Structures are given as C-alpha cells and as structure tokens.
Amino acid sequence: MVDVKSPCILVCSIDVISGCCFGCGRTRAEIANWLSMSSQERDTVMEELSARLEQVERRPRRETRRARIARQRMEGQ
C-alpha cells in the first residue's frame, strides 16, 4: 500500500463562488480524482492551493468537528 500525500484537513465544504474546498483548496473534481492522479499531477495541484485558499471569500456556516475539538481542548487548558 502506498501512502498518498493529501492536503485534506477534514473541513469538507465547497465555496460556491470559487468552487474550492474551504479546508484544502481543491475542486470537487480534484478531490474525487486525487487517488487516481499521478504524483506529478498531485504536486502541481498542491503548489496552487495557497493561492486558491486566499481567493475563498466565504467561510463554512458550521463549526467542524475538528474545530470544535480543538476549541474544547483550548477551553479546558
């Protein structure tokens, strides 16, 4: 089994304006095809993600499970 690098941070919600995921910056097509893409194709997408995430104007409407757990940990300290 090969370990495939992924930008996913478990914040899976697509911005309707940009078409990119709020969490990782990938498009729906890129997310769906991630495992079938070549390493070079994935690396190319990974290089573009920071710029894409800067273009995402809206935020998810709900608190993600990961964010809630992190918040609860911080409040507990």
Number of strands: 0
Structural class: mainly alpha
Mean pLDDT, nearest integer? 86
Q: What is the molecular shape?
A: globular
Amount of beta strand: under 5%
The succession of helices and strands, N to C, reads HHH
Q: From the alpha-carbon coordinates, what is the Rg to the nearest angstrom?
A: 14 Å
Low-confidence region ranges: none
Number of helix segments?
3
Biggest sheet character: none
- Termini separation: 39 Å
Pfam families: DUF1289
Protein name: DUF1289 domain-containing protein
Report a brief summary of the structure.
The chain is built from 3 helices and no strands. It is mostly helical. The chain has a domain at 28-76.
How does this model look, in words?
The chain is an all-alpha fold. It has a domain at 28-76. It contains three helices and no strands. The longest helix is centred in the middle third of the chain and has 17 residues, at 39-55. The model has no long low-confidence stretch (mean pLDDT 86). Pfam families: DUF1289 (PF06945).
Q: Which features does this protein show?
A:
77 residues, mainly alpha, globular
SSE topology:
Layout: H1 28-33, H2 39-55, H3 65-76
